[in-house]
Structure formats: C-alpha cells, structure tokens
Amino acid sequence: MKAIFTPDAPPPAGHYSQAIVHQGLVYVAGQVGADPAGRAKINSVEEETEQALRNIEAVLKAAGSGLDRILQMTVFVTDIALWSAVNATYARVMGDHRPARAVVPIRDLARGHQIELVCIAAAGAKRAAAKPRTRSATGKRRR
Known about the structure:
Elements: E1 2-4, E2 19-22, E3 25-31, H1 45-62, E4 70-77, H2 83-94, E5 100-105, E6 115-122, E7 134-135, E8 141-142
C-alpha cells in the first residue's frame, strides 16, 4: 500500500491519507469544497461540487491517475433538492466519462459543507488501445 499526500488538495483533517493506492486501485478519501489550504469555501453547491472534483483530480494526479480513470463515485449531499445543480456541475467537469455512482442524502457535513465526494479509480495512466489483429491473405494473423 502507498499513501498519497499532495499540497494541491486540502490536507487531511484527521488521522487518514488523502488516498491509498493498493493493487492497481486508488481509494480517495472524502473531498469537500475546501481549497488546497483547507479553508472551507461555502458558496453555491455548484462551486462546492467543482472544488471537490478539482480536489479529487489533484489527489488522483498525485497517485498517477486521473478523473478519466474513476471507476466509482459516491456523492453525499445534505439536501436532495440540490441534486439537479450538483449533477449538472458533475456532468460538466466529468465530460463523457460516466463512472458508476451512488448518491447518498445525509443530514449534515462537517463545517457546513453541502457535498462530499468519495471515489475509487484505476491506478496508472490510461493505456492506448491495442491494435486490432487482422488476417493476411493467407489466413495467418498479423498485427
């Protein structure tokens, strides 16, 4: 196991790592809309969502991964009425990549935050697609 710490995301607020890399996966601890210095930025839920995703992006980058490698995301939101705004921001930042996702409405988050994101991603950079194999005129496989 390898612990990940980067100054480009908020420092842990307790006894935990920003992420752990183990057996080809990156487990990212919960990220809120705080800036990399750890200052809470309680603004609109759209701003909080984008900042939390940027924090995840920074942690994944430090682990040698990226947003496009996320396999599963859990979204904790304090008011399900905020979901439309959260989802719109999430879709804009994530683009065409659609990892598995769960949304969990909860009562409160620390320091008044409205959203917290947790994810699991594949470690390492995205690999280029393998070249398809073709058959020659003689029927033998070739690359």
